[in-house]
Design goal:
Elements lengths: L9 H6 L4 E3 L15 E7 L3 E2 L10 E8 L2 E5 L2 E5 L5 E4 L6 E4 L3 E8 L11 E2 L2
Antiparallel strand pairs: 1-2, 2-9, 3-10, 4-7, 4-9, 5-6, 5-8
Protein name: Signal peptidase I
InterPro entries: RmlC-like_jellyroll, RmlC_Cupin_sf
Organism: Micromonospora rosaria
């Protein structure tokens, strides 16, 4: 097996790891293991939201909407991602949470990949 190449499918691989494809949490020695960056293929049902606000952020995040309608709540504003390709970037120290207004697929890139930020699974609002 060649440890310098990995071929997969984001929907399949992400489904077994909370959507995450790259980051410090992947097996050491594998090409998907990285302390520099995290990449997620997020698939969210309509009505899903983050369990709680992410606070004390030490990473920069890029969130790109692939499909759906997705709302990101930041301390001083709400950002609505409504068209494929809409994106938002926020830096270190910016708290956030989110809500999937419609079934949504997003690509998330965060850097660096820092242990200790695991939040529970999304919840569905009634």
């Amino acid at each position: 097996m060649d440890e310098t190449v990995y071929v997969g499918n984001a929907g399949v691989d992400g489904a077994t790891n909370g959507g995450w494809l790259l980051g410090h949490f992947m097996p050491a020695g594998e090409v998907r293991h990285s302390a520099d960056v995290e990449v997620k293929w997020g698939v969210h049902r309509a009505g899903e939201s983050r369990e709680r606000w992410a606070t004390g952020e030490r990473r920069t995040t890029l969130l790109v909407l692939v499909s759906g309608r997705f709302r990101v709540e930041l301390p001083d504003r709400t950002v609505l991602l409504a068209a494929a390709g809409d994106y938002v970037v926020w830096g270190r120290g910016v708290d956030h949470t989110w809500y999937a207004e419609r079934e949504s697929v997003l690509l998330t890139v965060r850097w660096p990949s820092v242990p200790g930020y695991r939040v529970g699974p999304p919840v569905v609002r009634a």
